[in-house]
């Protein structure tokens, strides 16, 4: 087998070793499914959502949607100009580019829940700390993703604009941004969808919204109410995914 060289053999051995270590440390054991019926019994308590909670939970869903939307939108607004500084082909100075990359890595390395817990000590309970936590994390994530799109953009239109006398900053905006905009939107809607799930977790630490309701219902064993919470969360994610796809199709 000429395609399977000695180098591939070493890679396969490393892969097997890492898989074995991972299985050991995660206590991966398929035999634990012998009590599968316990999960079925548990899920049976979720059947028939508590529909009378719909008006209250719909209002909480709007809070969750607002946290996710504002957090993602402000994150994009701040990340977009920073991504031009963090891209190798548009950054004016090498050391500024490197420091911006480190800064964005630092922002996205801190989980939203940690940022939220820190902000709670200053801002107290409520949706506002959750919004800021999502904004800060999204600046790091969207800044990196958009900077990579900028680096992969076609240099032709950029050079053409500079050749006719346009300043570099003007050429950056009008030659690169139209090329990458559909993918920017795609990343934005993906982060918006992620932010909905994040705002649910932040609800567990007092950020409000349907996440807090889910935590309270689970803690008090109200499983039919939990079922209603999960149903609304699924509808939110599906609606955002559908709307995002339609928006992207229109832009392309």
TrEMBL record:
Fetch the SUPFAM superfamilies from UniProt: MetI-like (SSF161098)
Subcellular localization(s) per the UniProt record: Cell membrane
Q: Entry's NCBIfam families?
A: PhnE
Gene from which this protein is expressed: phnE
Any one GO CC term of this protein is: plasma membrane
Instruction: Give the source's domain of life in one word.
Output: Bacteria
The membrane-spanning stretches of this chain are 9-26, 62-87, 194-215, 221-243
Any Pfam family the entry gives? BPD_transp_1
Membrane topology term? Multi-pass membrane protein
Sorted UniProt keywords: Cell membrane, Membrane, Transmembrane, Transmembrane helix, Transport
Does the keyword field hold Signal?
Answer: no
Q: Which PROSITE patterns match?
A: ABC_TM1
The family classification in the record reads: Belongs to the binding-protein-dependent transport system permease family.
Task: Say where the protein is mainly found.
Answer: membrane
What name is this protein filed under? Phosphonate ABC transporter, permease protein PhnE
InterPro entries from the entry?
A: MetI-like, MetI-like_sf, PhnE/PtxC
GO MF terms, alphabetically ordered: ABC-type phosphonate transporter activity
């Amino acid at each position: 087998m000429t395609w399977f060289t000695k180098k591939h053999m070493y890679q396969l051995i490393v892969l097997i070793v890492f898989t074995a270590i991972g299985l050991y440390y995660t206590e991966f054991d398929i035999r634990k499914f012998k009590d599968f019926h316990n999960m079925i019994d548990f899920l049976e308590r979720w059947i028939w959502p508590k529909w009378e909670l719909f008006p209250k939970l719909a209002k909480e869903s709007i809070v969750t949607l607002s946290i996710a939307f504002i957090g993602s939108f402000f994150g994009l607004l701040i990340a977009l100009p920073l991504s031009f500084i963090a891209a190798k082909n548009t950054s004016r100075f090498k050391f500024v580019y490197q420091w911006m990359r480190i800064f964005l890595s630092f922002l996205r390395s801190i989980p939203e829940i940690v940022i939220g817990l820190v902000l709670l000590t200053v801002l107290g309970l409520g949706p506002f700390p959750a919004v800021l936590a999502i904004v800060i994390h999204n600046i790091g994530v969207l800044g990196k993703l958009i900077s990579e799109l900028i680096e992969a953009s076609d240099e032709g239109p950029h050079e053409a604009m500079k050749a006719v006398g346009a300043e570099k900053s003007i050429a950056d905006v009008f030659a690169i941004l139209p090329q990458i905009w559909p993918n920017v939107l795609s990343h934005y809607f993906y982060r918006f969808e992620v932010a909905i799930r994040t705002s649910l977790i932040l609800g567990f630490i007092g950020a409000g919204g349907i996440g807090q309701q889910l935590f309270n219902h689970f803690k008090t064993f109200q499983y039919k109410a939990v079922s209603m919470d999960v149903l609304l969360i699924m509808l939110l994610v599906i609606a955002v995914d559908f709307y995002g796809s339609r928006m992207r199709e229109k832009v392309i």
